[in-house]
Amino acid sequence: MSDQTKTICVLGLGYIGLPTASLLGTKGYRVHGVDVSPDVVATINSGGIHIVEPDLDILVKSAVQSGNLTAGLEPVEADIFIIAVPTPFKGDHEPDLSYVEQATKTISQFIKPGNLVILESTSPIGTTDEVVATILQQDGHKVGEDVYVAHCPERVLPGRILIELVQNDRVVGGVDEESTQVAVDFYETFVRGEVLATSAKTAELVKLTENAYRDVNIAFANELSMIAETEEVNAWEVIELANRHPRVNILQPGPGVGGHCIAVDPWFIVSRAPEQAKLIRTAREVNDSKPQWVMAQVRKQADRFKNPVIGCLGLAFKADVDDLRESPALNLVQQLQSEDVGQVLVCEPNLKQHSEFELLPLAEVIKKSDIILLLVDHKPFKKLTATSLNNKVVIDTRGIVK
Ligand code: SAJ
Fold this sequence. Notes:
Shape: globular
Largest sheet: 8 strands, mixed
Low-confidence stretches: none
Number of helices: 14
Helix content: 40-55%
Order of helices and strands: EHEHHEEEEHEHEHEHEHHHHEHEHEHE
CATH class of the largest domain: Alpha Beta
CATH architecture of the largest domain: 3-Layer(aba) Sandwich
Bound molecules: ligand SAJ
């Protein structure tokens, strides 16, 4: 059987599962996507999407119209199963693997000899073997003999998902050599980057390392921005000039680190190696403390007004997405509201509505506010200039107002 006549079942139709399922659908595979939300399933079956991501609407529509992508609440038999469910943390930053366990149990009854099971969810070291392979084995499947299990962590950047899904190199680690090879062969059918073979455990740590590395580097920028503010110098100018050194490349400060990846994954390393992971833990703490520092800045400015109106620009966790998960911007706006620091007005151009806040047009927020709190570097906000905000107090956490 040629690869493209194979059937694929994708578990989880979120930011990774849906782009992957629709891409594979347009590459000729017959794909069935599974999600626990009836609304998500209905939206996709009608050719629509429930998340904001450039060009995803076109891809999903085309995959659904060709008949190669269907969605449902239950899995179906398939040649390849891809698990792309969330791996959040719970309690004191301990990994919550219940979605991976549940997904594995759900597909177990549909698995036949010759099938390949891939875990794409970012996972703590050992998950592919100790959770996925172990559950399948307990259910009577002969992992390594006639069922192949591998980890291939997703590494796409929200906002560039469809480009990076194809162009990025992929790291593929099986629970045994044959599983690795079968999974590598599959990814090579649609990835233009290199597909790099390793073990499942190494692939797990590679992925966590990538996000911890970025977190540590953002923490450096955030720490620097707080130092610069105390010294009354512009942190972004410092960084721009320091980056003119051939071996320096500092990232950008912001109101904190959000999203379901970078703010979460480093904890998977810390929880497994608490003694050794000192720098990784500190970076997490620095980034997590940044919203409180911004909060203090807003309070200080708000004290200058009798009835301050605070215009908050952006709720999403980063530029040009609608994703609110772990968003420092959203947390800050919620805190400003609950602590009654002033009247809060909100503009979030990537959302149609929000359950807690009325979303207003940018011009209206600017006109009515005393303080402009710039939280996300969305494209429309990048056009703002000091002149257009001339009589306002501006707290620019992203350093974008010219
Ligand atoms: N951020 C800054 N300053 C920066 C860069 C980012 O404050 O210079 C903030 C963003 O505003 C955001 C957070 O960090 O709140 C994370 O944003 P991001 O763009 O760095 O990363 P994500 O979470 O969108 O995607 C990351 C990517 N990982 C790496 O770049 C190493 C992506 O490739 C992964 O696939 C993704 O995590 C994931 O799913 O794990």
